[in-house]
Amino acid sequence: MVKICCIGAGYVGGPTMAMIAYKCPDIQVVVVDISASRINAWNSDRLPIFEPGLDDVVRSCRGVNLHFSSDVESHVADSDIVFVSVNTPTKTRGLGAGKAADLTYWESAARMIADVSTSDKIVVEKSTVPVTTAEAIEKILTHNNPGKHDFQILSNPEFLAEGTAVADLASPDRVLIGGRGDTEGGRKAIAALKAVYARWVLEDRILTMNLWSAELSKLAANALLAQRISSVNAMSALCEAMGANVSEVAYAVGKDSRIGPKFLSASVGFGGSCFQKDILNLVYICECNGLPEVANYWKQVVQINDYQKARFVQRVVSSMFNTVSGKRIAISGFAFKKDTGDTRETAAIDVCHGLLGDKAQLSIYDPQVTEEQMRRDLAMAKFDWDHPQHLVPSSPTAASGQVAVAWDAYAAAKGAHAVCVLTEWDEFKKLDYQRIYEGMEKPAFFFDGRNVVDVDALRKIGFIVYSVGKPLDPWIKDLPAAPLS
Ligand SMILES: NC(=O)C1=CN([C@@H]2O[C@H](COP(=O)(O)OP(=O)(O)OC[C@H]3O[C@@H](n4cnc5c(N)ncnc54)[C@H](O)[C@@H]3O)[C@@H](O)[C@H]2O)C=CC1
Ligand SMILES: O=C(O)[C@H]1O[C@H](OP(=O)(O)OP(=O)(O)OC[C@H]2O[C@@H](n3ccc(=O)[nH]c3=O)[C@H](O)[C@@H]2O)[C@H](O)[C@@H](O)[C@@H]1O
């Protein structure tokens, strides 16, 4: 029986391994992590991540052929295939700080594999890593393993998106396997991993290629996806200036089959643990390889995203008589997108910081994010969020006087001067906005960073409404549009 061990029980390791176990009853899968609390949560009724459909998948195979354990070393030693799905955050110090990927967790996992291995292994890069990381890992493994076992390194980047992870894993657009197809050992390793996925993924969707192409394809895919969002967000600023409607423009553009309709929703800015991190990593790789023009091209995607968040804050402050000092502002949604409780790099953090900087009183509601998480995020230094939680410095009392957390969107808006929608949760489309309006200070402002509400209906109720990329409310029209510097 094939034994798989995955190092890292996070948003990727947990769901991907659960899907492998679910689809391959004859494979034993163990997911290990240095965080005992995370492992305990995977073994409990309340999983550590919120992901639609995941509970059922985990429940159907946990304790049968899917196990979660903090006994990292013995399970790694005992396995044939080791997936490494640990954090690869942006470096905060030293060479490449603010851009390069921090491979500390990766390297320590690799050294541990080398130390404990008593048999040959296939080591699979699941984490998103800089191009040529496979070679570095290979060197660590071959130079540190006393038994001189054979290690085959494969790159198998993950393309799931949070909120749709189960569907993405069950029916992926493609599975990518990079390996050394020019050696016999490499070919065997590729075939072994391919055989795992082939249990449920059509053969023509399993792509095999060389290691560097696979590693780069992952960075390229995220860069291109994020670029679409920055492109449509850049258009949203122009739409506001011209009286056009970004949803109509995106619809018209997306009808071109060469462009396609997906990933063209204008927003307050993309968030999530990967888009910014992976583009910065790409920028760093370009700079290190003497390609400053290419680096600058991709840097723009992140710069437009920062501009979009700053522009939103500017709209809020300038609309409300140029000050939000002491005013209660309801924040509807804190997660970086709907159907997840993940807040890493969420646009809400930057928008809240902007409003807190202008001395607003925030009242935040999100159906899946805990108060503790919101307070930690608002207190944390940039880039610190993507480290295992027990290693992140926290100051849970920061900003506490200016931040309150509400149990629903109605409570958040009570007595507020403005509502800002920052996550596109479905429930925000169905709220009783007449009731919300009646409970607010007047004039009542509504800033929709996700284009979820019916602008005309809210204006009829009496709200002054701003919706990203939509024709402007007469109240807002003549106010400055450029972000405050
Ligand atoms: N979150 C996402 O949707 C996606 C993430 N990725 C990539 O996958 C990788 C993992 O991302 P997430 O799962 O989101 O991170 P995560 O932070 O949710 O999980 C990583 C886990 O690895 C554990 N860990 C770190 N070092 C360890 C070690 N030496 N031994 C054992 N456990 C260790 C941490 O405690 C943590 O629980 C990253 O490289 C990310 O870029 C790729 C595709 C999608
Ligand atoms: O490497 C990763 O981590 C993953 O990053 C993204 O997945 P994810 O970040 O989970 O979620 P997305 O659906 O891509 O959304 C990212 C951000 O862009 C925003 N977005 C998305 C689409 C859109 O049209 N407009 C828009 O503003 C979302 O609200 C969210 O803040 C990619 O979609 C995955 O393929 C990839 O595996």
For the terminal residues, how far apart are their CA atoms?
61 Å
Radius of gyration: 24 Å
C-alpha geometry: elongated
Give the cofactors and ligands: 1,4-dihydronicotinamide adenine dinucleotide, uridine-5'-diphosphate-glucuronic acid
Number of helices: 18
Pick out the low-confidence regions.
none
Molecular structure report:
By secondary structure, this protein is α/β, with parallel strands linked by helices. Helices cover 42% and strands 13% of the residues. It contains 18 helices and 14 strands. It has helices at 13-23, 36-42, 54-61, 72-77, 104-116, 133-144, 165-170, 184-197, 211-242, 246-254, 275-288, 292-319, 347-357, 371-379, 409-413, 433-438, 455-461, 474-477; strands at 3-7, 28-32, 66-69, 81-84, 121-125, 151-155, 175-178, 206-209, 328-332, 361-365, 403-405, 418-421, 445-448, 464-467. Strands 3-2-1-4-5-6 form a six-stranded parallel β-sheet, with helices on both faces. Strands 11-10-9-12-13-14 form a six-stranded parallel β-sheet, with helices on both faces. Strands 7-8 form a two-stranded parallel ribbon. Strand 5, helix 6 (133-144) and strand 6 form a beta-alpha-beta unit. Helix 9 (211-242) packs parallel to helix 12, helix 11 packs antiparallel against helix 12 and helix 12 packs across helix 13 (347-357). The longest helix is centred in the middle third of the chain and has 32 residues, at 211-242. It starts with a strand and ends in an 8-residue tail after the last helix. The model has no long low-confidence stretch (mean pLDDT 94). The site of 1,4-dihydronicotinamide adenine dinucleotide (NAI) has 27 residues, from helix 5. NAD(+) binds at residues 8-13, 33, 38, 86-90, 127-128, 162, 274-277, 344. Its EC number is 1.1.1.22. It catalyses: UDP-alpha-D-glucose + 2 NAD(+) + H2O = UDP-alpha-D-glucuronate + 2 NADH + 3 H(+).
